[in-house]
């Protein structure tokens, strides 16, 4: 009897590590999340990854799953050799880590390593909201903003594999300082952190600032001040997307991250503002916004999908 094929998928973020066994049909099993504990340093993080991989290998063996390899999506920039070329202070000591080489040596299995937003895009394309779509731009909006470009069904990485740094295109000359060292980056205004900045600027009630979900709840209830703030936030997001539409000539955007929890209430407002800011020649028959559908499974699904043999 043929054994079911699968891979270990890992989504490594600054605060949590998601992992699962992903079958070749895209189904996710034994999904779990553990704290990253990045402050303990690189070696402790590598040891934690090793432990996670070991647990999933034992489970796969018990269930008769044929493991084809390990796919990892990680915060930061990843070069073509699977080395972390840049990571922020959220993952101290992570920059320069030859992750693919280290894990292949230890696990004895093929390992693929990519940026976490790349993994989300591939997961959604394989088994989610972008299924059947070969060309789109993915924008993940959370604490910061990440992105990637999918062309003809594959990630377009640019010269070094780093294409998609959408959060760091500048929308305000001399604007708010960014962790990257520049000022006025889009993510300072359109991320969840940017929404908090917007609320502080407009002297919003403290409960809204501390928990943006309360802002959206108030807006859904008809609060005029909340509706105005949500409208401003939608405009800030739309301006960045309009810039991308003009640069990439893309008419399909996959939106992922925390903002998708607001559903059409926010997406419809973004769409209205987007239409106002995109030149007609770029608008064509319309720009489509797709909300990611896989939720917290997207990253592990996409990471696992890049292991050889998973999608054919």
Automatic annotation (TrEMBL):
Keyword Kinase attributed: yes
CDD domains: ASKHA_NBD_ROK_FnNanK-like
Keyword annotations of the record: Kinase, Transferase
A single GO molecular function term of this UniProt record: kinase activity
SUPFAM superfamilies, per database record: Actin-like ATPase domain
Gene3D superfamilies membership: 3.30.420.40
Membership in a protein family: Belongs to the ROK (NagC/XylR) family.
UniProt-recorded name of the protein: Glucokinase
Organism per entry: Fontibacillus phaseoli
């Amino acid at each position: 009897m043929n054994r079911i094929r699968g891979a270990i998928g890992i989504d490594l973020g600054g605060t949590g590590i998601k992992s699962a066994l992903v079958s070749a049909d895209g189904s996710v099993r034994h999904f779990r999340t553990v704290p990253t504990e990045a402050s303990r340093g690189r070696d402790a993080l590598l040891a934690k990854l090793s432990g996670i991989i070991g647990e999933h290998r034992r489970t796969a063996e018990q269930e008769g799953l044929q493991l084809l390899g390990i796919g990892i999506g990680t915060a930061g920039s990843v070069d073509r050799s699977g080395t972390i070329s840049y990571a922020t202070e959220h993952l101290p000591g992570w920059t320069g880590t030859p992750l693919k080489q280290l894990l292949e040596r230890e696990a004895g299995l093929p390992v693929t390593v990519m940026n976490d937003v790349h993994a989300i895009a591939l997961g959604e394309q394989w088994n989610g909201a972008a299924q059947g779509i070969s060309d789109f731009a993915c924008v993940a909006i959370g604490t910061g903003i990440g992105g990637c470009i999918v062309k003809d069904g594959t990630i377009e990485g640019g010269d070094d594999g780093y294409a998609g740094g959408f959060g760091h295109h500048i929308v305000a000359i001399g604007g708010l300082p960014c962790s990257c060292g520049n000022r006025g980056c889009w993510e300072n205004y359109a991320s969840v952190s940017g929404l908090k900045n917007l609320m502080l600027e407009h002297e919003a009630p403290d409960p809204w600032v501390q928990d943006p979900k309360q802002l959206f709840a108030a807006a859904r209830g008809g609060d005029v001040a909340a509706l105005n703030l949500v409208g401003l936030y939608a405009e800030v997001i739309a301006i960045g997307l309009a810039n991308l539409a003009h640069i990439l000539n893309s008419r399909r955007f996959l939106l992922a991250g925390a903002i998708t929890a607001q559903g059409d209430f926010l997406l419809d407002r973004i769409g209205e503002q987007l239409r106002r800011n995109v030149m007609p020649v770029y608008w064509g028959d319309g720009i489509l916004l797709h909300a990611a559908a896989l939720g917290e499974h997207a990253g592990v699904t996409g990471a696992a999908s890049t292991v050889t043999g998973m999608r054919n």
